[in-house]
Structures are given as C-alpha cells and as structure tokens.
Amino acid sequence: MNIINKKIGIVGGGQLGKMMILEAKRLGFYVAVLDPSPDCPAHSICDKLIVADLNDPKGYMELSKHADVITYEWENISIRALEILEKEGLPIYHPLTTLKAIQNKHSQNEVLHKNGIPVPKFTKVKSIDEIKEAGKPENFGYPLMLKTTTGGYDGKGTALIRTENDVENAYKTLGSGTMELMVEEFVDFEKEISLVACRSISGDSVIYPIAENTHVKSILDTTIVPADIDMSTISKANDIGRKLMSAMEFIGTFCIEMFVTKNGDILVNEIAPRPHNSGHFTIEACFSNQFENHIRAILGLPLGDASLQTPCVMVNLLGQSDGKTALFGLEEAYKHPNVHIHLYGKSTSKTGRKMGHYTVVDNDINKAKTLATELKKIIFVGTNKENNNG
Amino acid sequence: MNIINKKIGIVGGGQLGKMMILEAKRLGFYVAVLDPSPDCPAHSICDKLIVADLNDPKGYMELSKHADVITYEWENISIRALEILEKEGLPIYHPLTTLKAIQNKHSQNEVLHKNGIPVPKFTKVKSIDEIKEAGKPENFGYPLMLKTTTGGYDGKGTALIRTENDVENAYKTLGSGTMELMVEEFVDFEKEISLVACRSISGDSVIYPIAENTHVKSILDTTIVPADIDMSTISKANDIGRKLMSAMEFIGTFCIEMFVTKNGDILVNEIAPRPHNSGHFTIEACFSNQFENHIRAILGLPLGDASLQTPCVMVNLLGQSDGKTALFGLEEAYKHPNVHIHLYGKSTSKTGRKMGHYTVVDNDINKAKTLATELKKIIFVGTNKENNNG
To answer: Sheet holding A348-349: strands in order across?
Structure first.
C-alpha cells in the first residue's frame, strides 16, 4: 500500500485529536475518529466519525474497519478495548505496554524509580489509617498529596491534605477507597516545567525546548518557552527525557511534567503518552509541531525539526460561563500581528472547560509575556450573555 | 452574531480552498464549499460540500443558505452567478468590482496602465490580419504573445508567436476568434517575481516578501524567497503592490506576477485575486500565512505578521502519470528535518496536474536551494505502476 493511502484511526476527538487531524490533512491522510460526542472538536474535519462510548467494544470494532494504524489523544482509555484493535492486527502507538505502565500512577512511579529517574516519595494506601500513618513526621509528613492511581487529569483524582484534619475529607473526595489510592510527598516546587518529545518507530527522537508552566486551580494556565531555568537544569531535564524515551519505548509525542525544587533538583510529576497542552506553543514556535511529529511517528516517518524558532507564550482559554460558545476580544487581540488564537470548536462553553488557547511570539520573551498578560483581560470565551459586541 | 458563528462560503474546493479551510478551522469556523467534484481536495474538511457546476445558479442559491460571507479560490468564475449571492445580501471578497476588472486581461491591463503601473504593450486583436499587423517591426514586432482576454491560467489561453509563420496556428489554438483576443509585447525577462499581499476590510494591509519564480512549460515550478533581486527592484515591486492595493480595492489575499527586465524595469504580467501558488512558502516561512490572512481579511479582522521568519524554497509536485495517486520518496525526503510536504488529496493523478508541493526552509538559502533541487529526484507523485516501494 502506498503510504498516503494509510488510514489513521484516533481514539478521542477532542482538541488534541483535532490538532492531529489538521496536520494529517496537510498530506491528505484519511482519518477516522472514535468519540462519544457527535459534536466533538474533530467532527467536522475527520473523514469518518464513529460515535460510541469509549468503553464500548463495538465502537472499536467499527474503528478497526476504517484504520490501518491507531493512536489516541487521551491516556485514560480502556486497555481491553484497545486490545480489540490489536487483535485485529492494527498497530497502536504509543504501544499498549507503554500505556499500561503509565495509566497506573503507582506503576508509572515504579518504572521511573527503577530507571533512576527522581520522583516524589510515594506509596499505596488503602485506608484512612494508612494515610494518617503516611502523614506522620517520620514518614512523609504534611502537607501530603492523596491521588487515585488511575483516571486523574487536570487536578481531578488528587487531593491536597494539609493536616491530619483533612484526611477523612480527602479520602471521601477520592471515592472512599472504591478506587486504588496512593500518597505522594508534597513537593514545594520553585517551578513547574515540561518536556515534550517525540520518538519514531525507528527509535529516532526529537526533544522540544523545555517549557515553563503555571497552573491555576490545577489546570494549565500559561506556558512560557524558553523556560527561565539554568543550563544545568535544562540538561538534567533533557537527560530524564532521553532516559525515559528508551525505558518506556514511546512511539509518538509524549510529555513529562516535572517539578524544579528550590535547590535545583528535578522530580518527575507526571507523564502523558500523547501530545500535551504544554506543547501547543510548538504550532507557532517550531518548524514541525508536536502534532505533526506525532503523525509522522505513528506512520513510521522520520521526524521534523523541533528546535525553537521564536520565543513563545501560550495561554489557555477556559470557558467563563455556561451556554452556547462565544469568543470575545478577537478583533482587539488581532491588532497585535504576533498573536494567534485557536478555538477548539466546542459548541458549548462550560465554566473552566478548555475552549481554546492563544499564543504570542516575540523575539523578546519579556514583550511576549507582557502582551500575553494584557490579552488575558481582552480575549475570553463565554456565552453571549456577557456581551453582544464580540 | 458572535464572530465565531460566522459561516464562510468558498466557491471552489481545490487546494487553495482546502488550505483556506485548514486555517479557518484553527478558530473553528464553519465552512461550506461549492465545487463540481464530490472528491475535491476540500471535501473531507469542510462542513458542507455543495456539488454543482460552477455555472449552475442552483449551487449558488444552496451555498447562500450555508454562508454569511463568501470568497472564492479561483478568478475564472461567473460574475452573474456570484451576483446571485450578492442579491441574497452576502458580502463577497474580493469585491465583484475588483474581480470584474481582473477577469478580463485587457481591462486588467487598462486599469494598471491608467494607474501608472508599467505593463507590457498590449492591444485587442480580432483577426489573423490584425495579429500580423501587430507583429510588424514598427508595431510590437516578433516574438509576440497572443492571449485570450478571459479564462487563462497556467499558460492556458496564451500562445507564443515567434514569427509571422506561427500566426495562423496560434489563432487556431486560441479558438479562431471565438474568444476575445489580445496581443502583448514579448518581454525578454531576466526574472519572474511575485508579490503576495493581503488587504483587510478596514484598508490595512500586509505585503509578504517578494518571491522569485521559475516556470516550466508555463506552470510554476519553483519559488525562492527572498528573491535574489536588489533593493531598488524590491522597492519598485512593493510600490506597485501598494498602488494596486488601493486602485483595485482588494479585500483578502492577492498576487501580482511581475517580470524583471534585463535593465531592471518591472512590468506587471498578471494579477490573481486570491491566495496564489507562489505564496505557499508563507505556510512555513511566515508567522501568518497567505491563507490565514485571507480568512482574517474576509471576516473583517486585523491581519497577522507577514514578515519572513526563514528563507524558503517551494517546489510544485505535478502528477507524473495518470491513475490512482501515489506519493514516492516521502520517507527519504523526511530524513531532512527542514522539509515539509503538502499533498492536496486529489485521488487521481494526471500528468502535469498540481498534486502537491514541498518546501525547504534553511537560514542559508543556498543550502535550501541545493536540497530542494536534490529532492526533485526523490519526491514525486504518480501512480503505483512506477514503483511499489513508496
């Protein structure tokens, strides 16, 4: 089969799936998407949308008929369901072994630890008593992070325990033991950084420049590239990226979120086996962005240049209210010729929902930061209730 | 209406329409396309494809139901049909007055001449005798260009007359007087250059860096940016761009193809009221490419940065044989991380048909040129008959 006739199947049609398709379409690839929503961001630009629950085997069987290679935009999917595709002879990237190791936060940390990659101290807990035991000063002490080992994202599945008094509430919030739990040492970090990288089937890889992230209410707010960290921290982060790349046998784009502590140590916080929100800056700031390289990787193609062309600040646009989506400030923002706005095409805005993002590029990163901050007051996504002049 | 709910209608779903949609989709705009082919390049990424002949009023009536603003990717369309859309109250960009002035090559030249913009000498001709008269040394002399005043593109609608002996053949080739004809002085040019620019509804504009073009058999083969011309030529070309911009009242992206003569004069060859093949380099080499700025312009938004980020060479991929499209050399080409290939998604390859293009970016333009030339032997589009290893 000629390569351009290869059909790509994506599990999940959210913004990450959509941005993968925009790159796949530059080469005219056929893309089928499996998503529970007929109105998902990918719906209008994919060739085939299969609407089914992501736990429904029928959807995967249908997807297998429309794809020659499978990828996913979301790690919290059923391995069993993906195994259906594997049984149909379809290659899946990242490989299921990689996904399995990552899906469970506890086994993820174990793999990291085994490979000499520093992580916050962690242990499984089963009960309120075990959490309290971990909170003792001779063990992890307080504050303490309680996490479900599976299913977490954007702060969901985690609870901060400040003192022993918070333990019962945190335990309840995370399902009162119905889900597997772990505790993690609280890291009083100086900075959060992330490394986005891509590895091809042949084992070649590219690492994008390290990004510096700020979260608000556990959701990514701003990414600044290059990160304001010293060369030795960059070098440590890149070493971790390279080690993990071969340890985990990624194929495609992935992200490692890390803490930089006050004394300059790096601890890995989380791994995402997919293109990542903190890598959106690559669309404007790099020659081959994280989505393009992901598509290249899963098709067995060599990867494109991941070096930074221009410093960049990315800011997420979260929904400010509930209702039919409206975008405000587009015209005013575009008076600055170095601004790009991306809207994911979600017809309904919800407070706190990721609706889009914008980037500012400037050779002077401080100018980019200043403008990105000013634009926070200007660009926003909500509903027409707020304003009819948008 | 909130701006993101504005529906865009495009007349024509070829590669230019497709690349407009890829940009429109970054902001999640709804796009309806009118094209005679259900399989056109835009078909899989537009929201609504209306399949109808571009001369069929019914197709335009249907398009009017799915759009709030209209643009087109192709200038040789029926003004009468577009007037149907205008009567339905839809704004059309570029405006119909602009399109009318451009559609007829003779009136185009008259507008240019009236505005003090240098063009090759030209005059209408109706018969073999009138062509022979123009060919006399005291008039235009030979060689002489014969052109239909309407409908020409990629060398179609033109015939080179080297001596009086060619006149009858050329006259026959261009329809024996069934179409309006003109002759034009033959320009023995040193270089062909083009200026791609965009003008917004508010009258603001951006001009992309001047591109240097090489045609093979009258079809664009290679574009190199920056053009290898001196500052005074750049300045003359930009002056022409600015003059034309206000004279023609463009709204959207347009292109001016120009000849640079051996003594450094510039003559305008042709105007295209749409994004142009010689502006494809802007996708990789500029922050806001010609398609993005076109979409911004027709929506009444300010324009994005059109300055050159990296030198770039663009090479067209023409079909090498007839049959089901296959792409060869992708993997080898992508061993160079600074190469991007675009395939337009035409399921059928035809010899000489524009199937895609590739770009090479490099801060050293000579390296980009060398690699772009090497890749001509490696990347090609044809059918599976040639090779099964692609």
So the answer is: A348-349, A323-328, A380-383
